[in-house]
Amino acid sequence: MTTTHQPQPHPPEPSDGPGSDSRSQGHAHGHPPAHSPTHEPAHSHVPGPAAAGPSTTSRPSHAPGPSPAPNPSHAHGHAPAPGPSHSHGHSHAHGPAAPVSRHLRKVIAAVLIPFAAAVLIGLAVLWPGGAPAHERTGVGFDRQTQQATVTRVEAVGCGAVNATGGGASATGGSSTGQRAAGTCKKATIRVDTGKDKGRTFTEIVQPDQTRQLHEGQKVVVAYEPSAPKDLQYSVTDVDRRLPLALLAGVFALAVVVVGRLRGVMALVALAISFLVLNFFILPAILQGSNPLVVAVVGASAIMLIALYLCHGPSARTSVAVLGTLVSLLLIGILGSLFIGSSALTGNTDDNTGLIHGLYPSIDMSGLLLAGVIIGSLGVLDDVTVTQTSAVWELHEANPSMGRRALYRAGIRIGRDHIASVVNTLVLAYAGAALPLLLLFSIAQSSMGAVANSELVAEEIVRTLIGSIGLVASVPVTTALAALVVSADRPGPAAEGRATGPAAARGGRGRRRKR
């Protein structure tokens, strides 16, 4: 059967099958479009202009000579061209990605530049002068602390040191008679920092106490200047700075080894996020600014810095920023609606009660909403960046896909991501509230009663609002990415680069970031 190939105005997507190598045998040169036995080529080729001069081809030009017989495995229909030289206009879709067109860059910049300017203005207007001072209450974290060392531990009878009259055990499992008959520990502790450096005091450790002290252990002691001199210091915690520092070092090493330069940038972005949190968000809330406004401005600044620092200033990153921004706005709206309708005060434990007592002007429900927004930001970044990259890679693999096809393919990837991320978020909140859930289980409370209590209802609202934002970020970001890459129209220079020598080598050129 004889077949003549006609040039197609829109060549189909090339496939990586036999004969796709640019060095494959059997390219017929200088032959007329005669009827000859041919097979369907693995790559559709668009013939170049007949009168075109020398052009980039997939193999070196052959010297003029007799026309070789067409290879049945790879033959093309070519229009006759004058002269001994014949060029092929190959239309391969592989190779380095062309940069996003200047017009599309202007559209993205028109959206993001005003947003970034608004964030900078918000930072300037809300920037605090530091956390306002207050008088120490000596309660919880609001007390003076110093570093100390346990220098000596000796065993003594609990009855001899009168341990039964006070200092109840942290576990509370033993009766008074059992503690009196047991063996306690008498620890001598030396203060290592502060104006009383070198001062020592003793503390009795009961046998059923959760935290047991041993010689040489580093501890944290609380100082109460208004107490009697021999009771001014007491052990409140263990000094964990060394193991925490080692763990942070292992984490940083793992990130750098695996992520290389991208990992280094991620660590820098993490440090900047902590700086924004400690020097802007927390002091601004304590100074009396609206917690929701502070959280939106601070989270937006963290988002812009982290995404562009880790992934580079590209159109792909900008689409991820837009998707994250839309999802944060949705979380803020839903949070305001349901926190208000559920009558959640945000004052549910000793710590929030202490904050409200020290700074009555702080809106505790607004503080709760601010925590929801900031807590959801990290997972949102992950989802939006992943979805944007997936759509971009789909487009580079098959540039002929329209925005609907890109959206459908990207959303299939996003559904898998949704299932894992939502489950992760719910389990993270459940793990944090596990002791609370155990208390309700011990009390044999019904599921409805447990969910209705403000402690649990606060976590339910926090979890569900964050999960809704995550779920919404997948279609929103996928649609934005599909719209951007399908609407892109690179200029002639970009198209020439995409079909240049790197493309002719089958896509082994270095990929450009878009």
Automatic annotation (TrEMBL):
Name of a matching Pfam family: YibE_F
Annotated TM spans: 107-127, 242-259, 266-286, 292-310, 319-339, 359-380, 418-443, 463-485
Region entry Disordered, spans: 1-98, 490-514
UniProt key word Transmembrane: yes
Domain of life: Bacteria
UniProt keyword Membrane, yes or no: yes
Keywords noted in UniProt: Membrane, Transmembrane, Transmembrane helix
Feature: compositional bias, Low complexity: 72-86, 490-505
Protein name, UniProt field: YibE/F family protein
Species in which this protein is naturally found: Streptomyces thermocoprophilus
